[in-house]
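Why this split exists: single-chain examples teach little about how molecules sit against one another. For that reason, every record in the complexes split bundles all components of an assembly together and asks for one structure covering all of them. Below is a record exactly as it appears in the raw files.
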Amino acid sequence: MSEHLGEEALAALAEGEADAASSAHASACAACRAKVDSYARTAALLASYAPASRNLCPPRESLLARASLRGTERHELDAHLDACPLCKEDLADLAALEAPPRVALAVRFARGLVELVENALGELLPQAEPVLARGGAAAPAIAVRRDLGAGVLLEVSLGPGREGVDVLVRMTGAPRFRAELARAGRLVEGRESAEGRVLFDGVAPGDYELVVHRSGAPPVEVALGVKTE
Amino acid sequence: MDDLAALIKRVRAKDGSAESELHGRYRRFVERRLAEARQRRNWFWLEELDDAIQEVFIHFYQAVREGKFVFEGEERLEGFLVRTCWFVAMNLKDKVPRARRVSLFKTEEDEEGGLILDLPSFARSASERLHGRDCAELLYRTIGELVESRREVILRTLQGEKVRDIVRATGKTAAAVSGLKFNAMKELRDKLEANGFARDCGAEAFSHE
């Protein structure tokens, strides 16, 4: 029997990262194996008490029922929520699901055609102008117009571009506006193609959030779905 | 509304065509809720939206059949679907460890600043459902009694870091971290045996070497 394993090798063994020689030694040495087992059990104990294990958090049903809890139960739950960022995060996730959906506009591009999947934004324009982006001029497009009141019209057009889908945002009747397109919190770069027009070209398929800001009015938020086949 | 009540009744009777009809009516509702929450909350871990939607409906049908959902109007039905979305989404989140990381240190750059998660407060508010609150408090208190270098390595282990992560965070060598961690685990185990944790908390972490 070779010399017993050192601390480094024992820890590596317990974490499943040992070399072949250490593994071979441990399989033949009861003393080293006992140390490894003991280490591994302590690691498992720590994992079961780790905050991220959620073993110390109340069941999610309690979070849902929070409003109806009273007395000690409510007090204990609130004390936990104060101390636990994970449960707070779960409740924020629930709030995000409960929030009413934004107006949605979804289109699908397939075989050179563009199809409207969902439109809660506004009036579908029967003859959409082409989206004037690189390589997209001659392709069919879809355009939807929303009347924002006081003579202000928002128009969102989507057409196939050279490297994805081109999204053109136009606003008439408002002196200035700003359009932001984001996917999973990441902004897509847009460019002002002409006065009153912002173009996002080469947009990849996916779910986006389009937010149009103008001064003195609440932003218009659109859940924009771009699908391809 | 009556037709919806009748539809739910048929789902409860395990009518497959009723399930399909309900799915057709509410699929887009579920999809929109999940897709929007994914954007609003940056749920990077929710990659397969179709799978999640399917799971929501499976849970919903099950709840209907088991009488956990009773039809009391469309608004309540939609509320129940939203809550089912939440349970499904949270279960998926639990399966992705990095979605559940808790930092026990203020920032990566400033680890002297204190814990983001206050362990003693967290332990005091722990749920009794799996481990006793007293046990959590005792364990965290015992960790607090370790010398600083060993306490750090245990806290990092507690927040899910492996040896290679600790090497990266502390700048120590892998050999130094492994040795430190081995000795920290041993000291922690000895202290937990001595202070009654092993006896009172039923831990099976202890063996006689």
